[in-house]
């Protein structure tokens, strides 16, 4: 059961689809810690596979075509790529599939991409898979919002 769930979630991330594996396994079948570990590793494996596919299929073409414009970006990624990736993983402004594909075009190493993605996605994964009792009845109180 755990291995089939990991394949589902990892494939979900590799194909850049929207969270099917996350919802299926963790809210129904696994305890929080087990679900967190499984989803975290499966998501990282899937993201790394998408990164590698992007690197193999597109990197040389993009780097040769836009080499003059990418010099400063490549220099920044070589120097502080792990910090950039960590920040992108923590801020849900950019979809993860875009991050996976774009980072595959940069000089960041695969190992650095994998471990930073693992750590960076961990908090969001924990929030996403945490079961919320009676989530249908959740409402935001007017006291939650400050007066304008």
Question: Would you summarize the structure shown here?
Answer:
The chain has 148 residues and is mainly α.
Describe what this molecule looks like in 3D.
The chain is an all-alpha fold and 148 residues long. The chain has one domain (2-129). Helix content is 73%, strand content 0%. The protein is built from six helices and no strands. The protein has helices at 2-14, 20-28, 32-65, 67-90, 96-103, 110-129. Helix 1 runs antiparallel to helix 2, helix 3 (32-65) packs across helix 6 (110-129) and helix 4 (67-90) packs parallel to helix 6. The protein is elongated, with a radius of gyration of 18 Å.
Give me some keywords for this one.
single chain; 148 residues
Query: Based on CA inertia axes, which overall geometry fits?
Result: elongated
Structurally, the number of domains stands at 1
Distance between the termini: 51 Å
Radius of gyration (CA) equals 18 Å
Record field, number of beta strands: 0
Largest sheet: none
Question: Helical element count?
Answer: 6
Averaged pLDDT: 79
Bin the strand percentage: under 5%
Structural topology:
Blueprint: H1 2-14, H2 20-28, H3 32-65, H4 67-90, H5 96-103, H6 110-129
Helix pairs in contact: 1-2, 1-3, 2-3, 3-5, 3-6, 4-6
């Amino acid at each position: 059961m755990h291995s089939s769930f990991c394949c589902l979630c990892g494939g979900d991330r590799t194909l850049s689809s929207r969270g099917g594996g996350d919802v299926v396994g963790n809210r129904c079948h696994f305890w929080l810690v087990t679900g967190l570990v499984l989803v975290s590793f499966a998501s990282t494996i899937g993201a790394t596979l998408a990164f590698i596919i992007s690197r193999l299929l597109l990197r040389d073409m993009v780097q040769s075509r836009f080499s003059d414009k990418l010099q400063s970006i490549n220099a920044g990624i070589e120097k502080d790529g792990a910090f950039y990736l960590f920040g992108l993983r923590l801020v849900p402004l950019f979809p993860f599939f875009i991050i996976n594909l774009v980072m595959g075009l940069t000089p960041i190493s695969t190992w650095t991409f994998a471990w930073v993605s693992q750590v960076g996605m961990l908090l969001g994964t924990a929030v996403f898979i945490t079961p919320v009792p009676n989530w249908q009845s959740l409402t935001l109180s007017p006291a939650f919002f400050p007066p304008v």
